[in-house]
Amino acid sequence: MKQNKNDRRKELEKDLEKFPFIQDHQDKDELYNKISLQMMEEEPKKRKLVIMPIFALVAVLFLTALILPPILIDQSGEDSMDIATESNEGGEDNSETLHDEQSAELSQIPSEMEVTERDMDGSELQSYLVFEKFKENPFIIAVAAGMNGEQIIPFAITTKDGQLNYTTTTTLVAEQAEELGVAGFPLQGTEINRKGTEADIIFPEDFQMAGGSSSDVMLHNSIEQTFQNSQVSQVNLKYKDGRPFEMGNFGTVESLTIASSVKVSYKLYNYPATESKFLVPIKIDENATIEEAFQTMIDNEGGEYIDSPIPAGVSLKGEEASEELLSVTITTSNKLEPDQQSITMIEAVLATAASFGYEHVQLQGLPFRSIDRYDLSNPLETPVAVNPLLMDTN
User: Is 160 helix (H, G, I), strand (E, B) or coil?
Assistant: First the structure.
């Protein structure tokens, strides 16, 4: 049972009464003075114990701040000098080697200024190709016969007014045959009508062939070349009055089948009298490889006025990267410049690759990164036609 406070107090009082009685005879004032004096003597001692260590610590830190930085600076300077000396002594040869390697690398990579200057120098370079993305106006294919009587030269003709009529256009261009350095246009004055995969060639009633087997072959090849890169697979031949066409030694020819693809090697037609130069397709075996096509381009064969578009000392190696992309590595014993000779080579390679069905060509090994409109760091598009020619029909 819990005790209340009064009961507990009474018990304490009874316990205290049992202790012996002690009486203090000191005066109260005297006792107070003694206690006060003792307290005054102990308080300074305690303050000294606290204040003195703090003051000493502050003094030490202050002196350290004044003395230590100059020592550290001197020591740091000496260490830096020692390290720099050791680095210079141990790495002098390595520095020279690195400088030489960097200089060699820079000499192999044209600077942006060099590329710009070369591109400016190449602004007047002649291009022999027509690309889908650069084609501003529709064109027609008109095929000329070379002065050697052996090769045909296809032209992609556009007009200034954009109006194209095969009969009118081929008649006009035939009038400029001599200026172009060609013998003539075998299909001059004919009319061509296309209907899907078929086309009709309508010859004038007075159409005359030059005569001879070479003329027959020239006309036959001209017809094939006219529709080579189109969707036309059959061409019907007739005169304007409806009679079937007579093709010399071939006899009566009512129609011709156009192969979907014909492998060719492009070479350079060079007629010195007019300084005319055009790309010409040289037929090769349908089973030929791209390597064989390149070799045909390099060989100095093909007849009179036919030159190789590949500079002397250059070899070409083709490797199929995919069905659409051909990788071509160019090696040379002579220095190549971004000039007309180089762009002619590049475009002949692109045109030849197109006849093999490739849509893009990645060129490797050339000592320059761009030429004219070609960025050689990326795959180049193959052309849809060769030898662009702008006609004024007025």
Answer: coil
pLDDT confidence band for 40 (50 / 70 / 90): low
Q: Which residue matches tokens 């107090």?
A: 9
Any bridge partners for residue 278, and if so which? 269
3-state secondary structure of 371: strand
Q: Give the residue ranges of DSSP H helices in 254-358.
A: 290-298, 340-355
Q: How many CA atoms lie within 13 A of 298 on its CB side?
A: 15
CA 188 – CA 168 distance, rounded (Å): 9
More confident residue, 89 or 209: 209
**Distance between CA atoms of 277 and 271, rounded to whole angstroms?**
7
Q: For residue 224, what are its two tokens?
A: 């094939």
Beta bridge partners of 237: 201
The backbone torsions φ and ψ at residue 391, rounded to the nearest 5 degrees and listed phi first, read -110, 145
Rg over CA atoms, the chain: 50
**Please, are residues 287 and 261 in contact by the beta-carbon 8 Å criterion?**
no
User: 156-195: per-residue pLDDT in tens?
Assistant: 999 888 788 999 999 999 999 999 999 999 999 999 999 9
Nearest CA to 284 out of 303, 263, 301, 268 is that of 263
Residue 244 carries which DSSP code? B
Lowest mean pLDDT among 118-122, 131-135, 150-154: 118-122
pLDDT at 45 over 50: no
In the sheet with 191-195, reading across from the earlier edge strand, the strands are: 191-195, 198-203, 234-239, 255-257
Average pLDDT (222-229) is: 93
Report in angstroms the alpha-carbon separations of 337 from 122, 268, 279, 293, 386: 10, 19, 21, 24, 23
C-beta separation of 229 from 154 below 8 A: no
The pairing of beta strand 374-375 with beta strand 370-371: antiparallel
- The sign of the torsion formed by the CA atoms of 365, 368, 371, 376 equals positive
What are the φ and ψ backbone dihedral angles of 214, each rounded to 5 degrees?
Answer: -65, -35
Residue 156, both tokens:
């992609």
